[in-house]
Amino acid sequence: MNELDRLAEPKQAEIVYETDEPVRYEVVGPLAHIIMNRPKYNNAQNSQMTYALDAAFRRAVDDDDVRAIVLRGEGKHFSAGHDIGTPGRDVTASWDRQMLVPDHTNKPGAEFLYTREHEVYIGMCRRWRDVPKPTIAAVQGACVAGGLMLAWVCDLIVATDDAFFQDPVNRMGIPGVEYFAHGFELPPRIAKEFILLGERLSAERAYNFGMVNRLSTRETLLADVQKIGEELATRPRLGNWLTKQALNHVEDLRGKRTATDAHFHMHHFAHAQSDLVSQNSLGGMDAKSMAAANKAAAAEKKGK
Questions:
Q1: Is pLDDT at 292 greater than 90 in this prediction?
Q2: Of 175, 182, 134, 179, whose CA–CA distance to 154 is shortest?
């Protein structure tokens, strides 16, 4: 057997889930509300949540009475990103996969994360982007790193006036999160600033760049997205789907899919480099150190 083809012994880790319901599903009129439900950890996305999100999107697609979908987060924040430090971090767990990729848990070296993230990140995001019904992200508070991926796959984004968007993973030596829509959501020079400095982008500034469709408040967010969704529900079902396909096709003709593919490999080269240099795929950072660095940078910028 070629040495590169040898499988690894699956890694063992203690996983403690704080909830059996990481995603709630509610139907309000013609809208399905898909609600991330890990408020204790600011809706950090582990595999348990990601597969629950996928099941919720499937449920909404299969229900002909659902005409539009709202994606939102329970609690203070929309999503703090991918889970890199809670007791429920389950990167070593095996799941019934939805994409045609192999199980990652017995893959050695860089193949471990590369295989997993083909499934739960880039693969899932593309599935959700192509859902045939209009989708609305209702964003409050923090929308950080992996949280961006969830908002960006939605057709519309409504954000509260205190919301902010941030991709700080360059602190880890990584050139942006896996679903690399940065250069399509923002002008290229602003996208460079967004990743290189990793600073918070306010909802108002994101609105001015066209990344956010409408601004709201915490008090009115749910009512505002419900009103938009109910208006979308009055449009012909097929017309909504064709409109989505047409605009998604325009993005792909402009290079979105190929850019995302190219970046995905750069992203995993960065992971592999970190493993080689620091024996840690996240550049020696963890959830606590990333949160501390982000808060310190935000406080320093506010002080100026």
A1: no
A2: 134
- Judged against a pLDDT cut of 80, whether residue 100 lies above it is answered with yes
Mind listing the domains of the chain with CATH numbers? 7-303 (3.90.226.10)
User: Is residue 101's pLDDT more than 70?
Assistant: yes
**Contact of 84 with 167, CB cutoff 8 Å:** no
Residues 187 and 210: their CA atoms lie apart, in Å, by: 10
Q: Which residue has the tokens 């629950």?
A: 52
* Crossing angle (nearest 10°) for helices 256-278 and 110-117: 150
Q: Which residues contact 74 (CB under 8 A, 6 or more apart)?
A: 24, 35, 36, 37, 38, 39, 43
Q: What pLDDT is stored for residue 304 in this prediction?
A: 65
Mean model confidence pLDDT for the chain: 95
pLDDT digits (tens, 9 = 90+) for 227-281: 999 999 999 999 999 999 999 999 999 999 999 999 999 999 999 999 999 988 8
Give the 3-state secondary structure of residue 34: strand
Mean pLDDT in residue range 35-60: 98
Compute the distance between CA of residue 263 and CA of residue 46 in angstroms, rounded to an integer.
Answer: 22
Backbone angles phi, psi at 89, to 5 degrees: -65, 120
Q: Which residues contact 3 (CB under 8 A, 6 or more apart)?
A: none
The predicted model scores a pTM of 0.95
Copy the structure tokens of residue 101.
Answer: 């990729």
Report the distance separating Cα 75 and Cα 51, nearest Å: 20
H helices of 146-254, in order, are 146-152, 182-185, 188-196, 203-208, 221-232, 237-253
Instruction: Quote the CA–CA distance of 260 and 151 in Å, as a whole number.
Output: 16
Give the torsion sign (CA, 140, 146, 150, 155).
positive
User: Got the DSSP string for 156-182?
Assistant: EEEEETT-EEE--GGGGT--S-SS--H
